[in-house]
What does this fold into?
Amino acid sequence: MTKFAKAALCVLTLGVAAPAVAEPIDIANITCEGFASLDEQTKGALIMWMDGYTGGINEDSTFDLERLGVNAADADAACSADPTRSLLEVMTEVTSG
It folds into this structure.
């Protein structure tokens, strides 16, 4: 199971409680490397947020756990290849295909 899929599963099993983040996260500027340094609950919440955000961009209002897992695996591979990439760019790329 990829890091992204684990994070998404964490949110689903623990509930979508607000993670304890000391400071707001600027989604436009977080890199894959920055994402990797977050705690699991924050990662899960961020993945869920990004799924909704990219779904809005793609005019797709469905929630599909299987698709989320595939997108998470694709994002994990892209982030592993280049940890300096923007996480938002990676997620937008993998969800638009």
